[in-house]
Design goal:
By secondary structure, this protein is an alpha/beta fold. The chain has 2 domains: about 5-255 and about 470-485, Rossmann fold; about 280-465, 3-Layer(aba) Sandwich (Rossmann fold). It has 19 helices and 18 strands. The chain has helices at about 20-35, 45-55, 90-95, 115-130, 150-155, 210-215, 225-230, 235, 240-245, 280-290, 315-325, 340-350, 365-375, 390-395, 405-410, 420-425, 435-450, 455-465, 470-485; strands at about 5-10, 35-45, 60-70, 70-80, 85-90, 140-145, 165-170, 180, 200, 205, 220, 250, 300-310, 330-340, 355-360, 375-380, 400-405, 430. The strands form 3 sheets. It has a 9-stranded mixed sheet with strand order 3-4-5-2-1-6-7-11-12, sandwiched between helices. A hairpin with a 2-residue loop joins strand 9 and strand 10 (about 205). Helix 10 (about 280-290) crosses helix 13 (about 365-375) and helix 11 (about 315-325) crosses helix 17. It is globular and about 70 Å long.
């Protein structure tokens, strides 16, 4: 029997993307389709999403409407994403605005984000609960805080008399929780019983992620190690007690990558395509990358960074050791944006070390592929990382990951210790505490490994042989959906 799942997310590639959530939400329908799961994605009606649905014509035909969705007019339109069904909530007063999905062009959060995503979740609960004629779903799968009120609406205010479907809440990053003033509660249309420690109330306000974690039938996060880490005060971000209380309902499922989009043998963004057997062809990509970033050519180790420039990602620590990296004879090409002080720090480092450090502030999808295809090693010194995708792309491209031992980084990279090297199993370099000393030691170890051409090729090929496609992860989600329907 085919299971019909409504996947509710605030972004999904390729239509709208600010981070890894979009990659996962965009890839999941195809990942579960092989396991008799038909997934429909629901997105907010941002201008770019509606333009894609309308084919650029600006006209869409609604399949449902809400005269007042938490006080706002809204309608539902349909389309496709990656060949799979797509639903879009067209609510102009909430989503038809310039800027990003969550903030304006200056990066400031929209003041009404609480109402925007509460209305999105209310619509999703209506759809999942059968309020829209012609649409039926067995499971509601909510992603991150923007969709986290869906399980709460289904629990406390389902749209009809029939029992609501089971819900799944996926945490892509516990650090982003969606906390809003208590005054928002009156706008949600929830019964008084929902205003409790076992409902949406959290430290005197409305906690979106907290509500989803408390109300969902099952909780998933994006790696087994992160599922364990968030039970602790260090990584639980204030919600560790709730995670511990949910116990066996918490599951860690590693993200996959889209091997159609990320395949060095077919990647049109690269100067030279290659496979694990033709790694010599990477030399052309390395030369092209060095030229693009204004770096001196040569065989010495070229490190790359593709990251948000934030404290979470450990970029402040990298900035502290960047002169030492150059002193080790290495080069660095960095693509990213974020904290303005960090941006300025990396630009200044590039000015101090012309030809050795190159920096691009911003994001460029094609350039991110070129960095993976031409860099020798990718630095991921995150203080915490639920799963991470850049290290998975690095493995697939023979760009050796140098990672902190946390979350999904610990689950997906095998450290090049003597035993792993001897067994031919090493795929990267891991280090423990995210400190300047630990990071520069890892960089020095990587430079030394890179100097041993045979050992380096073995590490590259082991990483490229690893299977981080969506095959196993898609089955894990399908198994969870089946289990929820069995115990319903």
């Amino acid at each position: 029997m085919t299971i019909h799942v409504l996947s509710i997310a605030s972004e999904a590639a390729p239509l709208v993307k600010t981070g890894g959530l979009a990659d996962v939400a965009g890839a999941l329908p195809a990942a579960v389709a092989a396991h008799d799961v038909a997934m429909t994605t629901l997105l907010p009606g941002y201008p770019a999403v509606l333009a894609a649905v309308s084919g650029g014509k600006g006209k869409v035909k609604p399949i449902h409407s809400w005269p007042s969705l938490l006080g706002q007019p809204a309608r539902l339109v349909s389309g496709t994403i990656g060949g799979h069904p797509l639903l879009v909530l067209d609510a102009p007063t909430l989503f038809a605005r310039d800027g990003g999905p969550y903030g304006d062009a200056t990066g400031r959060d929209w003041a009404d984000n609480g109402l925007r995503f509460a209305a999105f979740a209310r619509a999703a609960a209506d759809i999942a609960g059968g309020a829209v004629r012609g649409l039926h779903f067995d499971i509601a799968h909510a992603h991150d805080w923007q969709a986290a009120l869906v399980p709460a609406f289904l629990r406390f205010a389902p749209p009809g008399a029939a029992p609501p479907p089971p819900s799944v809440m996926t945490i892509h990053n516990m650090a982003f929780q969606g906390f809003f003033p208590a005054s928002l509660f009156a706008q949600l249309g929830l019964p008084d019983a929902a205003w409790s420690i076992n409902g949406v109330e959290y430290h005197g306000g409305v906690g979106f992620l907290k509500a989803g974690l408390d109300s969902a039938w099952a909780i998933t996060t994006v790696s087994p190690t992160y599922a364990r880490e968030i039970r602790s005060a260090e990584f639980g971000m204030g919600l560790d007690g709730l995670i511990r209380a949910r116990g066996h309902q918490v599951h860690g499922i590693v993200n996959g990558i889209d091997t159609r989009e990320w395949n060095p043998a077919t990647d049109a963004a690269l100067a030279s395509q290659y496979t694990a057997r033709t790694l010599d062809r990477r030399t052309a990509n390395k030369a092209a990358l060095a030229a693009q970033f204004g770096l001196q050519p040569g065989p010495d180790a070229l490190f790359v960074v593709i990251s948000r420039l934030t404290w979470q990602k450990g970029m402040d620590v990298l900035l502290q050791v960047i002169d030492q990296l150059v002193g080790l004879g290495a080069r660095l090409a960095l693509l990213g944006s974020g904290d303005k002080a960090l941006e300025a720090g990396f630009v200044a480092a590039a000015a101090r070390h012309p030809g050795r450090i190159g920096v691009r502030i911003g994001y460029d999808e094609a350039l991110s592929h070129q960095l993976q295809g031409g860099g020798d090693a990718i630095l991921v010194p995150s203080r915490f990382e639920p799963c991470g995708l850049t290290q998975l792309y690095g493995l697939a491209y023979g760009c050796v990951p140098v990672v902190a031992r946390t979350g999904g980084l610990a689950d997906t990279v095998i450290d090049a210790n003597p035993a792993a090297l001897a067994a031919g199993a090493a795929t990267g370099v891991q280090f423990n505490a995210v400190t300047p000393d630990a990071l520069i030691d890892a960089i020095a170890r990587t430079v030394a490994l890179h100097g041993d051409a045979a050992a380096w090729r073995t590490i590259q090929r082991a990483g490229m042989k690893a299977d981080f496609s969506w095959g196993r992860s898609g089955k894990a989600y399908a198994d969870l959906y089946n289990h929820l329907l069995e115990v319903r």
